[in-house]
């Protein structure tokens, strides 16, 4: 792990963000590739995976984004937390706007419960776009943190950025599977199910590069940008991930998955950051 951290320290931060988010995208593709090995997926396993995803995102929002964002903000007391509060609200508002505009369908939901503007798009496209919404703030978070490290902000560390990318990658693996298997169940071939599953994370390298570039170009926005990514991820967890796990009798499994994901992400961030 030390050699990985040293490598990321030695390269351009935008390139580092790109490589890190390629890794997270790759793990999504690896998860989606399980559709070639399994014909069906147990509903309890799906809910546990989604719970794990939520736990990682919530832990990353605090340990990797909000905490360093507050630490590097100027001032004391209430003044010090203002950038975090503003950025958090803007991030949640950004995903709220996308949620209302972008047509999508949550995993485990009926087609009649699709959200966003009305569209004739097929269920497969809507399911993929739902997970794409998850991945926009994840890629952005990784890019912003790498940009903060390169800009020399106190509280941003290369170890923390690597830990965040690793945590996001871990939760992307079950996400890829969680997209591909329902598509397979609805009649798509294994190849098409895989392609749609991995495509749901293609936005991560794009968001990662944009996040790193924005922080390096406009350095004073870093505390706001970190909190923006955190607000976006928390909105996704509360509005998208948690409801997806509450549609059947496996809510306890989803809850334990959430706790496991939180512990793993917290451990990674503290241990490597």
TrEMBL record:
Task: Give the residues annotated as coiled coil.
Answer: none
Q: Name one GO molecular function term.
A: zinc ion transmembrane transporter activity
What species does this protein belong to? Maribacter algicola
Q: Pfam family example for this protein?
A: Zip
- Which domain of life does this protein belong to? Bacteria
Cell compartment(s), UniProt = Cell membrane
Report the membrane topology from the UniProt record: Multi-pass membrane protein
Q: What is this protein called?
A: ZIP family metal transporter
* InterPro entries the record matches: ZIP
Q: Which family does it belong to?
A: Belongs to the ZIP transporter (TC 2.A.5) family.
